[in-house]
Every structure is written in C-alpha cells, then in structure tokens.
Amino acid sequence: MTTIGDVTTARGGGFVRTRRTRQSEALRGLVRETRLDPASFVYPLFVTHGVNERQPIESMPGQSRLSVDQLAAEAAELRSLGVRAVLLFGIPASKDAEGTEAYDDDGIIQQAARALKQADPALAVIADICLCEYTDHGHCGVLTAAGEVDNDPSLELLARMAVSCAEAGVDMVAPSDMMDGRVGAIRSALDQRGHESLPIMAYSAKYASAYYGPFREAADSTPQFGDRRGYQMDPPNVREALREVAADIEEQADIVMVKPALAYLDVIRVTRESTDLPLAAYNVSGEYAMLKAAAANGWLDERGAILETLTAIRRAGADIIITYHAKEAARWLNER
Ligand code: PBG
Ligand code: ZN
Fold first, then answer.
1. Looking at ligand 1, which atom is closest to the CA of residue 286?
2. Substitution site in 221, 229, 288 for ligand 1 pocket (most atoms within 8 Å of beta carbon)
3. How does pLDDT run across 273-310, given as a tens digit for each residue?
4. What is the whole-number distance in angstroms between the Cα of residue 29 and the centre of ligand 2?
C-alpha cells in the first residue's frame, strides 16, 4: 500500500493492466491481431502505347504510365518484392463512342497482359473491365441518343472486353463499370468461350467518389459531360452496398470489392460480416495522393502513415488491398 496525501493505491491490484503485453516489440508481435503481407497487395499499372515510355503521373508521385516494353522489368521488380498481382488499366491510341480498343484483341491491355504473362507466368494479371478509358465521352458504358449511359447494350461490350482479356491470358477480370447485371453477363460470356475457370473480382460497392480525381488524370478518363452518379453508388448509403454485394454474389462473383477504402471502412466491415467470399478494398488514387502530398511537405511520417493506413484497411476486414503503395509498403515490410 502506498499513501500519497490522502489517496491510497494498492500496488498491483484493482484494475486491468492492458499495458502488460505492450512491453516489448516481441510481446506486441505475439498479440498483434492484424498483419500486412505483400502477398495480399494488388499493384495497379497504367499501360500506354509507344516505346520506352515512363510518363510520370503528376498527381500520383512515384507512379507512371508505362509502355509495354517496360513491363518485364516491372514484373521482375514486383516478384523480388513479393507482390504477386497487378491490376491493368489501359490508355488507348484513340477513343470512340463505343470504346472499341477495349475489346480489340490487339488493344493496349491485351498486349500488356501477354507481355506480363510472358515475363512472369506466375504473376496474377488482373484486367480492369470498363469502357471509360476507351470512350471519347469518358463514361463507363455506351450512351443513348439522349446522352444517358445505356445499361443493357453496355453489358455486351463489357463481356466482349472480358473475353478478349481472357484470351490474352489474364488470370482474373475485374468489372468496375457499375452497370447492373454485368457480373452475370461477363460470367456467361466467359463460360461460353471455355473460360469457366476464370475468376471475377467485382467492384461491387463502388461509390461516386471525389477521391478518383488523380486516377482520371492518369487514365485520361474524366467524363466529358455530367458525372458518374447515375451508376456509381451514392456515398451516404451503406445498406445499398450490401444489396450490390448480394447481387454480384448471386451472379457468381468470386471476390467482391469495396471502393474507395478509407472513407468507407464501415462498408468494408459490414461487407466482411455479410459474406464469406474474399473481400478486396481499393485504396484509391486520391487516398494515395493525400498521403504523398502530406509526406512531401514533411507533415506526416510517410512510412508510419502508409503502413498504419494499409493495416486499418485489413483490420476493417479486407483480405486483398489494391494499392499504389504496394511496392514501397512491400519494401518496408521486407526490411523488418
Ligand atoms: C474506371 C475506374 C476508376 C477507378 C478504377 N477504375 C475511375 C472511375 O470510376 O472514375 C478509380 C481508381 C482510383 O482512383 O485509384 N471505372
Ligand atoms: Zn469506368
């Protein structure tokens, strides 16, 4: 017993001591509930026509648009870091109303897929399936005469893109367009062409977010009029996210996704609790840009903030993290 003034404390008794297991890194390591592993990262790649191109993306410091000849070196670097999956986005040679390069067997994504699989057959190559990088109007589907995004005719083109990517050798397709019925349309088109074993990672709960700004600069996919609020989800909604997820599972999605990640950790959590399917979260371009800008100004400890952020996405319930931080985070994790 210790008496300080008229306060008496019993040494060692009377309250819970949560600090006991925080006394050393070894003890903290034993009781740690969430771990990061480069094997759960997916690294997005922007691929462009041309030779010897490494065009830096201004609003995403450290990221570049690469030409196909640069991809073998990229694959080797990812392999050495333990990052085993990439998500491909293409910048086409030209755009038109129907986004034809998206489903051209010699399109930029198809060329990139072949180059990556040749460089490293064990790398998981995932193709983002959407028309917005390929359409001159910048929307994710085709338009009606009145300029509305026309759901059902878009499905056929998205399915064609998925089949074309499958024939180019990708390991998975990831529809990001948010048309209704696209997972089912892609599934049956793949099955009909003998790709019944190719998995679909569905961008199920994809919100109409301001955090996609830097990506649209990177992929040159800003809508030329209007916005995406007629097909992407309204940010205030969470019950609706579960309906989206349930619909995609019904249509045979193999992996579901929540996007963006940071402002939607609650959506990741409820999705985790609603399904046993693998769950991906997309740590999007604006989230990356925020941390990079703060770090560049010396306002945040870069490594600490990035690893804490990625850990939070895992803690919320994501199995897979699609992130532009994949390479640097893997490097830091491997150093430990
Ligand atoms: C295309 C697509 C977008 C992103 C992934 N796929 C942009 C959009 O929907 O406007 C955003 C990724 C990011 O911001 O990192 N549909
Ligand atoms: Zn799109």
1. 14
2. 221
3. 999 999 999 999 999 999 999 999 999 999 999 999 99
4. 41
Residue 333, classified by CB atoms within 10 Å of its CB into exposed (0-12), middle (13-18) or buried (19+), is middle
- Measure the CA–CA gap between 110 and 218, rounded to whole angstroms: 19
Q: Say if ligand 1 is within 6 A of residue 67 CB.
A: no
- pLDDT grade, residue 11 (50/70/90)? confident
13 vs 130, which has greater pLDDT? Answer: 130
Q: Is 259 a catalytic residue?
A: yes
For the Cβ of 128 lying below 6 angstroms from any atom of ligand 1, the answer is yes
Confidence of residue 336 (pLDDT cuts 50, 70, 90): confident
pTM listed for this prediction: 0.96
Is the CA virtual torsion 132, 291, 203, 48 positive or negative?
A: positive
Half-sphere exposure of 83 (CA within 13 A, CB side): 28
Taking the CA of 262 as reference, the closest ligand is: 1
Pairing state between β 124-129 and 7-9 = unpaired
CATH number of 34-335: 3.20.20.70
